[in-house]
Design brief:
The complex is a heterodimer of chains A (about 500) and B (about 550). Chain A is α+β, with helices and mostly antiparallel strands and about 500 residues long. Chain A has 21 helices and 17 strands. In chain B, the strands form six sheets. In chain B, strands 4, 7, 8, 9, 10, 11, 12, 13, 16 and 17 form a ten-stranded mixed β-sheet that branches. In chain B, strands 21-25-26-30-29-28-27 form a seven-stranded mixed β-sheet, with helices on both faces. In chain B, helix 4 packs antiparallel against helix 7, helix 8 crosses helix 10 and helix 9 packs across helix 10. Chain B has four domains: about 70 residues, Phenylalanyl-tRNA Synthetase, Chain B, domain 1 (2-Layer Sandwich), CATH 3.30.56.10; about 190 residues, 3-Layer(bba) Sandwich (Phenylalanyl-tRNA Synthetase, Chain B, domain 3), CATH 3.50.40.10; about 70 residues, Phenylalanyl-tRNA Synthetase, Chain B, domain 1, CATH 3.30.56; about 190 residues, Bira Bifunctional Protein, Domain 2 (BirA Bifunctional Protein, domain 2, 2-Layer Sandwich), CATH 3.30.930.10. Classes of the chains: A alpha+beta (about 500), B alpha+beta (about 550).
Chain lengths: ~500, ~550
C-alpha cells in the first residue's frame, strides 16, 4: 500500500494533545522565556499539567528550557527555636548568671535543655572561653563582657530575613552542621519555543480532542466536531494468538488433494477390524512369519463375527491351496487348515489394505481407483521414527491391463506431487502383492528414504473377492513423508497438542 | 526383518569377481536382502520374511553366484536313492500333537565330513527357522542326528514320562522324563507342544536309544551331531505337512550348498507311507508368457525370460504357453506363477523409466462424510479453537481419571500409555489441558478425530465414529460457553438440537447435558469436574463439548449421500 506521507513525515499540530497545543501556542506568542508558574497562570492549566506538557513538547523538540540552579538557606525547626528562644549557649550563659556564676552538673541535667542542646551549650561557652574547665560549671571572668550578639546569632537572623549574605561562610556552615539552617537547591526553568515549534501550525484548538472512539462518542456524534488524538503506532502491543490449521492434518489434506487430482475416490474402513479383513482376505497366512510383519493389537471384551460364509469358504480355499469356485488351485497356498474361528478375532487394524479389501468386496465396476488415508496400529516400540499408531495412504488402481509399469508410473507421479523427482525401486515382500516393490525417494537433506511400498495384488486376494481385473496397490507411510515435508524430526511431534507450538511461530 | 550374521569367509570363498563392501551393498539392494553391517568376518544381513533362504551362507551365495554370473540355473542337487532302512515309523498316538513329520538324510562328500563351521551354521540356521517359520517351535521344530550313533529305522511314539530316561543334550547324567519336563528350561519353554498329560513325544531308534523329545531337546549321544560326522538325519515335526516340508527344505540347503548328498527318508504312519522323495524334488511352477506380459507390462522374448530365470537360480523347461519352472526345495516362497514372475522382475531390475500412468481417467472425490468433517473443522477453526491431533490409543490412567469404563482395553499393549482405545475425545482433551498448564489462559482448542465404541452389531464388535471435541478453559469458563458453541455449530450445520440434563462421567452433576436431534444423541457437554482439574493442576474452570459426527451426518446429509 503506498504511503502518502512517507515514514518520516513532519509532525503537525494534530499530533499534539490539547494541553500541548495550548502551551505551544503560548510559547509561540511569548516574546521571552517564561517560568512554569507564569505559563500555568497564562494558559489556565494546572501546574502538573503544565510541567508534563512542557516536558513532552521538549521531547518532541518543539520547546526548549533554560535551567538556572541557585541555593537558598532557610531555618530549620531547631533554627527557628534558636531565633525565638536564643541559642542554647546564650540560654546557658543567662542561667549561670542567674545562679551567681556557678551551677552543679546535676542541676544542668535536670534543667531546660535536651541532650543535644546541653552539649551545644557547654561546647559553645567553652569555645568562647566563658566557661571554666571542671565541675561545677563556672563562668570565667570574660563572661562579664559577653552581652554583644555573637556571629551565629547575627547569621541566624539574616537567614530568617532571607538576606542574600548571611555572614561569614564558616559561621553559616557551622549552623548548617548544627542543623539550625538548611540549604535548598532551586532550579529555575524558563521555557521558550524551539525552532521546530516556532512555525508549527496549530489548528483546531477550539475542537475537543478525542482519545478512544467509544460507543458513547459514536452515539453522540461528538466525533464529527472533535479531533482524534493520534497514537504512537510504534508502541508495544499485547501478544495475541489465533487458531490455525494443525500442520500435520493440513498436510494430510493436501496430500489427499494430490490423489483426488489423480482420479482417486476415497474409501474408508473401521479401525477395529476382524482378523479376516485385516489379514486373511489379504492372503496373509494365519500362522506364518509373514503374519508377524503385522503384529497386531488384540482386544479384551469384544468378539467379532465371521464374514459372509461364501466369501469365507473361498478365502479358506486359497489359504489351503484348494481350487476356488471349481477352478484349478491358484497356488499351493499356505498349507495346513484354515481356521474360521481365528478369522472372527477382533484386532486393531494393522494396515489400510483392509480398507482396499472391503472396497473390492463391494465389487466396484472397473476402472476404479480408491485411496484411504487413515490410522493403523502395530505392536512397535514408540521412538523418534516409529509410532505404534501410524497413518498410511492406501491406494488401489483396478482395470484391465494394469501392470507393474503403471504402479511405478503412479509412484513417480505421487513423488512429483510432493515435489520429489528422484525415485528408485527395489524388491520387497508383502503376502498380498506379487511382485512387491519399495520406492525410495531422494530428499535433499535426508538422502534416500523408503516411502512407497506397493505391488500387484495376488490372484489369491482378487479371485475370492470376485475381482477379475488386475489391481495395483500400495500403502504409503505418510507420516514419514509428513515429517520430511514439515521438517519434523520426531514422529511423535505429528500428534501435537502443544498450544504454544500450534499457535505461535511461523506456519 | 529377519536377520543373521554370516561368515564372510565362508560366504564369499572363491566368488569371482569378489565384491567390495559397497558393491555387495548395491547388489543386495536390488534383491530381497540388505547388508546391515560388515565387520571383519561378520556379515550381518537382513532379508524380507519370504526369503529365509538368504539368511544361510549357501542360500545367499547361490544368489550372488547368479548375480555376478558365476553360476546360472538350478543349483546342483545330489539326490541319492532311497534306503529302505532309513525310515521313521509314526505311532498313531503322535498325530494329535504333531500330525506332520518328515525327514531327510544328508551325506558328506568324500573326505569332507562335518566341520566346525558347517556345524555352527546348521545349528544357527536351525534356531533361526525355529524362531521364524517354526513360530517358536509350535508350528515346526527341527532336529539333527548323527546316523552313525543310531540304528535306523526310527520311531515316534507318545510315551509315559515316568518311563523315560535319557541324557539331555548339554548334560552329563541321565534324567527321568518327569524331572526333565519339570525342571529343564527348554521343557518349560517348549514342553507344551510335545506333551499330552503325563505322556510326551519321543523319537527313538531301532535299538531303543532316545534321539530326542521333540520339540524340546535332543538326547545324548544319539541326538548330538559332532565334527567329523558324515551322515545326519534332518527331521521335522509340526502341525502341517507344508510347514514341515518348507522347514526341511530350508535346513537341507545348508548341506546341499556344501555338496552334501540328500537321501529321502520314508515316513510310515497309519495313513500310509510317504517315501520322502517329494521333499527333495525341485518344485515345479507353470509360467505363461501371457501372464508375464500382463504383470510386467513388457513383452520379453523367450531367451530373455530363460536368461533371467537362470540368473535367479531357477530352471525353465518348455511347456504349453510358456515354461515349467523348477525351483529348489528351499524356495517355499514360490507359491505360484506370480511368485516366479517376481523373481524374473527382480533379476531384470525395476526400471523407473518404464513407469507409465494408467490409460483411463476416473473421477476423483472425497467421501461426503469426510467433507462433512472438514466443514465442522472449518467452523471450529472459525470459532478460534486451535485444532489438536492425538492418538486413538490412550492411557489407562486417562480413562480411569474420568470415571469412564466403556473404552475397549488392549489385550497386549506395549505401553501403559497406549492401553485403551478411546471412546470419547474427552480423554485427549483433558490430557491436552494438563499438557498446557504453562501456556496461560484463556485456552480454546478442539479435536476432530475417530473414537471406537463397543458395538455388538459391528463385524469386529466395535464401531469407529468420528467426533468433534471442544475444550474451553479460562477464569470465567462455564456451561454456557460450551452450550453456546454447540448451538452455533448445529445452527451452522442447519439444525437445532434439544438440550436435556444428563449425568456424564467427568463433569459436574447438574452442569452437563445431552443434545438430541430427532431422538438421537448428537452431542454431550458439561463443566469439567474440579477433581479432574485439580488432579491435572489446571487452575481455571474448563468446559467440554463433543459432537458425534457419525450420528449427525445421516441426519443432515443431503438426500442420497448418507
Amino acid at each position: 500500500m503506498p504511503d502518502a506521507e512517507g515514514p518520516d513525515a513532519p509532525p503537525d499540530g494534530a499530533g499534539l494533545s490539547e494541553p500541548e497545543r495550548r502551551l505551544l501556542a503560548f510559547l509561540q506568542a511569548a516574546t521571552a522565556a517564561q517560568d512554569e508558574t507564569a505559563i500555568a497562570a497564562a494558559t489556565g492549566l494546572a501546574d502538573d499539567t503544565t510541567r508534563g506538557g512542557l516536558q513532552r513538547l521538549r521531547s518532541k523538540r518543539l520547546a526548549r528550557v533554560e535551567e538556572t540552579s541557585t541555593e537558598r538557606r532557610r531555618l530549620t525547626t531547631r533554627g527557628r527555636s534558636a531565633v525565638d528562644q536564643g541559642l542554647p549557649e546564650r540560654r546557658f550563659l543567662t542561667l549561670l548568671r542567674s545562679r551567681g556564676g556557678s551551677i552543679p552538673a546535676a542541676d544542668l541535667v535536670a534543667g531546660p535543655f535536651d541532650e543535644e542542646e546541653r552539649a551545644a551549650a557547654i561546647g559553645g561557652l567553652r569555645r568562647r572561653g566563658l566557661l571554666a574547665e571542671g565541675a561545677p560549671f563556672r563562668l570565667t571572668p570574660a563572661a562579664a563582657d559577653a552581652d554583644a550578639p555573637w556571629p551565629e546569632e547575627t547569621a541566624l537572623l539574616a537567614v530568617r530575613d532571607g538576606a542574600a549574605d548571611a555572614g561569614p561562610p564558616a559561621v553559616v556552615a557551622g549552623l548548617v552542621r548544627r542543623g539550625l539552617v538548611a540549604v535548598d537547591r532551586v532550579v529555575d526553568r524558563r521555557w521558550s519555543v524551539a525552532p521546530d515549534g516556532a512555525d508549527l501550525p496549530l489548528t483546531g484548538l477550539d475542537r475537543p480532542l478525542i482519545g478512544a472512539l467509544t460507543p458513547a462518542v459514536l452515539a453522540s456524534g461528538a466525533w464529527r466536531d472533535g479531533a482524534f488524538r493520534p497514537y504512537d503506532v510504534r508502541a508495544e502491543v499485547p501478544y495475541v494468538t489465533g487458531a490455525r490449521p494443525h500442520p500435520y492434518l493440513a498436510w494430510l489434506r493436501q496430500f489427499e488433494e494430490v490423489l483426488v487430482g489423480l482420479g482417486f475416490e476415497e474409501g474408508a474402513g473401521p479401525l477395529l477390524e476382524t482378523a479376516f479383513w485385516n489379514a486373511d482376505v489379504l492372503f496373509m497366512p494365519q500362522d506364518h512369519p509373514a503374519r508377524s510383519i503385522h503384529d497386531a493389537f488384540s482386544l479384551i471384551g469384544t468378539s467379532g463375527h465371521p464374514p459372509d460364509p461364501a466369501l469365507l469358504a473361498r478365502v479358506a480355499a486359497v489359504h489351503e491351496g484348494r481350487p476356488v469356485d471349481g477352478a484349478t488351485p491358484l497356488s499351493r497356498g499356505w498349507g495346513g487348515t484354515y481356521d474360521p474361528v481365528l478369522a472372527a478375532r477382533p484386532v486393531l487394524r494393522s494396515q489400510t489394505t483392509a480398507v482396499s479389501a472391503r472396497f473390492l468386496a463391494a465389487h466396484p465396476t472397473p476402472p476404479f481407483r480408491m485411496y484411504a488415508v487413515d490410522r493403523n496400529f502395530r505392536r512397535e516400540a514408540v521412538d523418534a521414527t516409529h509410532h505404534l499408531e501410524f497413518a498410511q495412504c492406501e491406494g488401489i488402481v483396478g482395470q484391465e491391463g494394469i501392470t507393474l509399469r503403471h504402479l511405478i508410473g503412479i509412484f513417480r507421479s505421487l513423488a512429483e506431487g510432493i515435489g520429489i523427482r528422484d525415485v528408485r525401486f527395489r524388491p520387497t515382500y508383502f503376502p498380498f502383492t506379487e511382485p512387491s516393490v519399495e520406492g525410495h525417494v531422494k530428499h535433499p537433506r535426508l538422502g534416500w528414504i523408503e516411502v512407497l511400498p506397493g505391488g500387484i495384488f495376488r490372484p489369491e486376494v482378487l479371485r475370492p473377492l470376485g475381482i477379475d481385473v488386475p489391481v495395483a496397490a500400495w500403502g504409503i507411510g505418510v507420516m514419514r513423508l509428513a515429517m520430511v515435508a514439515l521438517g519434523v524430526n520426531d514422529i511423535r511431534d505429528l500428534y501435537l497438542d502443544d498450544l504454544a507450538r500450534l499457535t505461535g511461530g511461523r506456519l | 526383518m529377519p536377520q543373521a550374521t554370516l561368515s564372510a569367509a565362508r560366504l564369499l570363498a572363491g566368488l569371482s569377481p569378489m565384491p567390495s563392501e559397497p558393491e555387495l551393498r548395491r547388489i543386495l539392494f536390488d534383491t530381497k536382502a540388505e547388508l546391515a553391517d560388515w565387520t571383519g568376518d561378520a556379515v550381518r544381513v537382513e532379508v524380507t520374511a519370504d526369503r529365509l533362504d538368504l539368511l544361510s551362507e549357501g542360500g545367499l551365495r547361490s544368489l550372488l553366484d547368479g548375480v555376478v554370473g558365476a553360476a546360472r540355473g538350478l543349483p546342483p542337487l545330489a539326490v541319492a536313492p532311497s534306503d529302505p532302512t532309513l525310515a521313521i515309523d509314526v505311532d498313531p498316538s503322535v498325530a494329535p500333537l504333531r500330525p506332520a513329520i518328515g525327514g531327510v538324510v544328508v551325506e558328506a562328500p568324500a573326505g569332507a565330513p562335518l566341520d566346525a563351521g558347517l556345524l555352527e551354521e546348521a545349528v544357527r540356521y536351525q534356531e533361526l527357522l525355529h524362531a521364524t517359520i517354526g513360530r517358536g517351535r509350535r508350528v515346526v521344530s527341527l532336529g539333527l542326528y548323527p546316523i552313525a550313533k543310531t540304528r535306523p529305522p526310527f520311531r515316534y511314539t507318545l510315551e509315559p514320562l515316568a518311563d523315560l530316561r535319557f541324557t539331555p543334550l548339554g548334560g552329563d547324567i541321565p534324567v527321568d522324563g518327569t524331572a526333565f519336563y519339570r525342571d529343564h528350561p527348554f521343557a518349560q519353554a517348549y514342553g507344551a507342544f510335545g506333551r499330552s498329560g503325563d505322556r510326551a513325544l519321543v523319537l527313538r531308534d531301532a535299538a531303543g536309544n532316545v534321539l530326542s523329545l521333540p520339540p524340546v531337546l535332543n538326547a545324548r549321544p544319539a541326538g548330538e551331531a559332532t565334527v567329523g560326522d558324515e551322515r545326519l538325519l534332518l527331521e521335522a515335526t509340526g502341525l502341517a505337512p507344508a510347514r514341515v516340508a518348507d522347514a526341511l527344505g530350508l535346513l537341507l540347503l545348508v548341506f546341499a550348498a556344501r555338496g552334501w548328498r540328500l537321501r529321502p527318508v520314508a515316513v510310515r504312519g497309519t495313513a500310509g507311507t510317504d517315501d520322502g522323495r517329494a521333499l527333495l524334488a525341485p518344485r515345479t511352477v507353470p509360467l505363461h508368457e501371457a501372464t508375464i506380459r500382463s504383470i510386467v507390462g513388457v513383452a520379453l522374448d523367450a531367451s530373455e525370460v530363460e536368461r533371467l530365470l537362470g540368473r535367479a537360480r531357477l530352471a525353465a523347461g518348455p511347456a504349453p504357453g510358456g515354461w515349467a519352472v523348477h525351483a529348489p526345495p528351499w524356495r517355499p516362497d514360490l507359491l505360484g506363477e506370480v511368485d516366479v514372475i517376481e523373481d524374473l522382475v527382480v533379476a531384470r531390475g525395476f526400471r523407473p523409466d518404464e513407469g507409465i500412468l494408467p490409460p483411463t481417467f476416473t473421477r476423483g472425490r472425497r467421501r461426503p462424510e469426510s467433507e462433512f468433517r472438514d466443514r465442522v473443522s472449518g467452523l471450529l477453526l472459525g470459532l478460534g479453537l486451535t485444532p489438536i491431533a492425538t492418538p486413538v490409543l490412550v492411557a489407562r490412567d486417562g480413562i480411569a481419571g474420568l470415571g469412564r469404563d466403556r473404552a475397549i482395553a488392549v489385550a497386549n499393549p506395549v505401553s501403559e500409555l497406549y492401553s485403551h482405545v478411546r471412546d470419547t475425545l474427552l480423554v485427549p482433551l483433558v490430557a491436552a489441558l494438563a499438557h498446557n498448564v504453562r501456556y496461560g489462559y484463556p485456552q480454546r482448542f478442539s479435536e476432530v478425530g475417530p473414537v471406537v465404541v463397543p458395538d455388538a452389531t459391528a463385524d469386529s464388535g466395535g464401531s469407529t465414529r468420528y467426533h468433534a471435541g471442544i475444550m474451553i478453559a479460562h477464569e470465567r469458563a462455564g456451561f454456557a460457553d460450551a452450550a453456546a458453541f454447540v448451538e452455533y455449530l448445529l445452527g451452522a450445520l442447519g439444525t437445532i438440537g434439544v438440550r436435556e440434563p444428563a449425568r456424564l462421567p467427568g463433569t459436574i452433576p447438574g452442569r452437563a447435558a445431552r443434545v438430541r436431534l430427532t431422538g438421537e444423541t448428537v452431542a454431550e457437554l458439561g463443566e469439567i469436574d474440579p477433581a479432574i482439574l485439580a488432579a491435572n493442576s489446571v487452575p481455571v474452570p474448563a468446559v467440554w463439548a463433543e459432537l458425534d459426527l457419525a450420528a449427525l451426518w445421516p441426519l443432515l446429509a443431503p438426500s442420497g449421500t448418507a
